[in-house]
Write a structure and sequence with these properties.
Layout: H1 8-29, H2 35-55, H3 59-62, E1 64-66, E2 69-70, H4 71-90, H5 96-117
Antiparallel strand pairs: 1-2
Length: 118
């Protein structure tokens, strides 16, 4: 594959899909009263992917070193994990165990969406 730069709209769509999937996972795993944590998982997952991909949108990082996987594909989920961990450290979630499950699912969604859509 030839290395390329992706449009801001493409990156925003990737981030939005990640956010929706992360939100759905959080809604599934977190208790009903934890609506703020559910919303935070969706927003932070989307924000982390958008900020990582837009700031690292360069041919060297978008090029697939391993067939089907670029450095950005692997690193966007790391940013998602970091954002969600910092959130949980600053505002302890209602259910720590289930939040950890929601975070893990958000990271997996981030990886899958970045590999499939970009």
């Amino acid at each position: 594959m030839t290395a390329e730069i992706f449009s801001a709209a493409h990156i925003a769509l990737t981030a939005a899909i990640t956010g929706v999937l992360a939100y759905a996972a959080a809604a599934w795993r977190l208790p009903r009263p934890a609506w703020l944590d559910v919303a935070a998982v969706g927003v932070l997952a989307a924000g982390s992917v958008f900020l990582w991909r837009i700031s690292a949108n360069m041919p060297a990082l978008n090029s697939d070193g391993l067939p089907g996987f670029s450095a950005n594909d692997w690193l966007a989920p790391v940013a998602t994990y970091l954002f969600l961990t910092v959130y949980a450290d600053l505002r302890p979630p209602a259910d720590v165990r289930r939040y950890g499950q929601a975070r893990a699912l958000a990271v997996l969604a981030s990886l899958a969406v970045n590999v499939i859509t970009i």
